[in-house]
Amino acid sequence: MSKKLRWGVLSTANIGLKKVLPAMQQGQFSTVEALASRDLAKSRQVADSLGIPKAYGSYEELLADPDIDAVYNPLPNQLHVPWTIRAAEAGKHVLCEKPISLTVAEAETLLGVQARTGVKIGEAFMIRSYLQWLRLHELLYEGRIGELRSIMGFFSYFNADPANIRNQVECGGGALMDIGCYLIHASRHAFGEEPTRVVGLIDRDPEMKIDRLTSGMLDFRRGQSIFTCSTQLVPYQRIHFLGTRGRIEIEIPFNSPKDRPTRIFIDDGGELFGSGITTETFPVCDQYTLQGDAFSQAVLESGEVPVPLEDAIKNMAVIEAIFKSASSGQWEQPKQTTL
Predict the structure, then answer these.
(1) 186: closest CA among 107, 133, 122?
(2) CA neighbor of 60 nearest in space, from 76, 83, 81, 39
(3) Alpha-carbon distance 98 to 247, whole Å?
(4) What confidence tens digit (pLDDT) does each residue in 282-310 have?
(5) pTM for the model
């Protein structure tokens, strides 16, 4: 296939400039054709530096461009839904950064928009298209570790800057929304079902009020998942999948490097010193290139995007229930949807 999906990007957010856009430009099925910000001079400067042909001084101008097929939305969390709606109503498919929204109710408004406009709306969990995660699901399906019963995950970094939007409550900041969402998403898909109830424990920053240390437990029909995430701890990430006959560990599960191979470890449980561990290594590639291509190919071939809107809403329901549990001190059920 020679045709590529033509992308436009809303904002000059760092995740786009440093990670997603350069990667998408290397895609087999994607090309970045336009960039928009509220400052035309900045937009032009950034577009030139990345080799993007068009630059706009407003989001509205980009959405009006008939030569743009799809929009990548990396705006602050509170702007995800409003601008996803605007893009969809302009006839553009939308890949929106995670989390899809601030609340389940807000996310559910996108269902009607998607149905009315006929575009595809997806959430940007790049791990769903990445090699080590695809291999994980193969191994689980094959029964390599027996029956999956437990997942343990950890994800942290240190950022105490009040000016950073990740530390602003009104922007949907905090550990659970920013990085805990990955651990929830990974758990739901490994078990292949939704948790029946969850419990959460949150420590909030006394000045910024965002959750800086959050732990959760998800109770699934087939097993349990526990995780901790933090925006004010030493940078670290790891996730383990434990079954009745073995264990799989992903070494760098989320911020997978684009300049070196990645690894997973498969432990047959023979003994505790690691003699039963085999290592699988995956070639150098960029997970954001794979994400862009997977979404683009789904649009071009009328398939399903890696993380459709319905899935994004279910992930948001778990996030919301963990926040509720942290306040109530009790187990909470994620909101049931008719999806």
Answers:
(1) 133
(2) 83
(3) 28
(4) 999 999 999 999 999 999 999 999 999 99
(5) 0.95
